[in-house]
Every structure is written in structure tokens, then in C-alpha cells.
Amino acid sequence: MKPPVISHLLLSLLLCAGCKKEKTPLETLPPATQTGQNRAGCLIDGQAWQPAYVSSTSSGNPFFVSWRRRPSGYALTLTMMRITNSQNMRLVFWVPNIRRAGTFALDQTADPRITSANPPYGQFIDYEPFPGRDYLTGPAAAGTLTITRFDTVARIVSGTFELTPQTDDGQTVRLTDGRFDVTF
Fold it and tell me: So which domain of life are we looking at (predicted)?
């Protein structure tokens, strides 16, 4: 090779080495794990979303998990929040009569105001801008919640989800590639 060809090749290699490929929204989500890492995320209409609780004055736990005895058995409530100075969003899953890991269809009519009488459901609430939007799963807005680990001794619940909940007036939001791994 001639020296100019070698120098052009070296220059090209150096330029390429300095280039960083931008991550896709999916690549920015935490991995799907089952070890109680208190991490979660999903794509909302193709944009990465992860729970966070941060304001100008404090930060806190963006997860609320409740496993309580009800008259019909134990029920699981999993809430993931994104509360920042500019966002206030919540993603809630309700699973009644849970005994073990499994897949739960989110395709029946539910009313979150009456928690104990509901089938499994998913709800996404975006409070900003006021008055906000409340999206709920149901017969015309189905989804799936798959719990891959439900460990009442180690107090870990992990899983994946996909849903397209809708508002009362028929607007939808698509949540895909969802994953969570939290302690309770």
C-alpha cells in the first residue's frame, strides 16, 4: 500500500471509533430481571418510559406494591409512578386472587373505584396537562400481564406486560415491551 492510502484508512478508523451509535428507546429500558432490583420500564407509543419520583425538593420510591388479603383471596396491586417537575403519570395493575406466577388477561370491564370486585386490569393515568387522561383496559382495550416471579417469601414480583388501554372517549395509548422487577 502507498502511504496516503494507509493514512486515509487510519483516519477513517479513528473517525468511526469516535462515533457513538445512539441507543434506540427499547435499548434504554432496564433488562427484564427477576431479582428484586426495583426497576421497570416500557415503551409508551414508542417512547421509553421509566418510573421515577423526583421533584425539586425531594426524591422517593416510584413503586407501590400491595399484596393483601381480601374476602375472595389475596390481591396484588402494583403501581409504578413517574413524578417529576413536569410529569405526573401512574401505571397500575390489579390482580385479584393471585396465588402464583402466570399470565393474566386484561380484557374485562373493571372499575378501579371498586377494587375488591374487579377482574385483573391495567390502568395508565397521565395527570399532565390538567385535567389529564385516564386509560383503562377492558373488552375493547385489552392487554396482558405476565408475572414471571411471584415470591411471597423473598417478597419479589417480576414480569412483563403489553396493553392498549383507552379513555372513556376512545383515545388509546400503547404500552409495549413492559417489564418490572420490584420488592414488596
Answer: Bacteria
Residue 120, domain member (yes or no): yes
**DSSP state string for 5-21:** HHHHHHHHHHHHHH--P
The answer to whether 163 and 144 are in contact (CB under 8 A) is yes
Q: Across the beta sheet with 175-183, what order do the strands follow?
A: 47-49, 39-44, 175-183, 156-163, 143-151, 102-105
Q: The C-alpha cell of 73 is what?
A: 383471596
Structural contact between residues 164 and 135, judged by C-beta atoms closer than 8 angstroms: no
Range of the domain at 64: 24-183
pTM of the predicted model as reported, rounded to 2 decimal places: 0.84
Residue 9 in any domain: the answer is no
45-67 average pLDDT score: 87
For residues 110 and 105, what is the distance between their CA atoms, to the nearest angstrom? Answer: 12
Question: CB–CB of 92/78 below 8 Å?
Answer: yes
Beta strands in the chain (DSSP E): 39-44, 47-49, 52-53, 63-70, 73-83, 88-95, 102-105, 121-126, 133-136, 143-151, 156-163, 175-183
